[in-house]
Amino acid sequence: MTGTSPSDFAKRLDKTADDTEALLGRLLSDDILHDEIARPKRLMDAMRYSSLNGGKRLRPFLVVESAAVFGVPREASLLVGAALECIHCYSLIHDDLPAMDNSDLRRGRPTLHKKTDDATAILAGDGLLTLAFDIVTRDEIHRDANVRLLLTRALARCAGIGGMVGGQILDLAGEGRFGGNEPIDVARIQQMKTGALLRYGCIAGAILGQASQKEYQALDDYGRALGEAFQIADDLLDVEGDAAALGKPSGQDAALGKTTFVTQLGIEGAKQRVRDLLARADSAVSIFGDRAAVLQAAARFVAERKN
């Protein structure tokens, strides 16, 4: 990989994180919008608690950088990235609930239901989910309504029954939550629960840039490889990572009896699979030449992350 040094990549990642933080702060302000009746303080405080001051903002970064390949205005891609981040933050709130993963810690702080209560956490997640679709349909994103429609439809499908939500219930079934001994397809669960939103971050740039079919497919292939690499890295961190660096307890997968890439492939096999996926991601976006340097660096960052 050439063209983007680790320090340059880190600066770009931090810049997008800062810009996303500022944008989310404005989107989650107390200002009432047209057709809204009120923004209840308890709800807004909870939504801000779980979406501000945290995370690397990798998903918005993927939107911004995939869109940059086509010269899309940064303001437009940041809005789409903010919508995606709202979906991601809502999913974390709900995943942490007692009925799901029952987590007490997220990003080094008490999870929202521990900070407040279950009902507030559920409604804050609902609020972020619906706000995402308010954001992604806004006129400022693209003058062509069909582009906004395609972005919205893709987001619904990546976040919904055939994507993240469907993957979550398959993951719970794999833990034996619903009785029986359903076969566990770790790769399918990953593609849906974790990979779908990461993939959206990549194809959203193609949609915004009104890419050709070949260009769209390249970013789709890249997003799928990056999503799987992210999950395997996550599985490895759960086994080898430090809880302080992670900002949450390690060893949770084993405690829940989850089947993961590590339990299926072993530690060394999982690490080799990540290397193979890096090569695949790099190859997928090679059609963009030097414009792909940041995306290639992003894939390496995902594979080598420590938290």
UniProtKB/TrEMBL annotation:
GO molecular function, one term: metal ion binding
InterPro entries in the cross-refs: Isoprenoid_synthase_dom_sf, Polyprenyl_synt, Polyprenyl_synt_CS, Prenyl_diphosphate_synthase
Gene3D superfamilies linked: Farnesyl Diphosphate Synthase
Entry's Gene Ontology BP terms: terpenoid biosynthetic process
Needed cofactors: Mg(2+)
Keywords: Isoprene biosynthesis, Magnesium, Metal-binding, Transferase
GO cellular-component term (any): cytoplasm
Record family assignment: Belongs to the FPP/GGPP synthase family.
Name the UniProt record assigns to this protein: Probable farnesyl diphosphate synthase
Organism: Bradyrhizobium frederickii
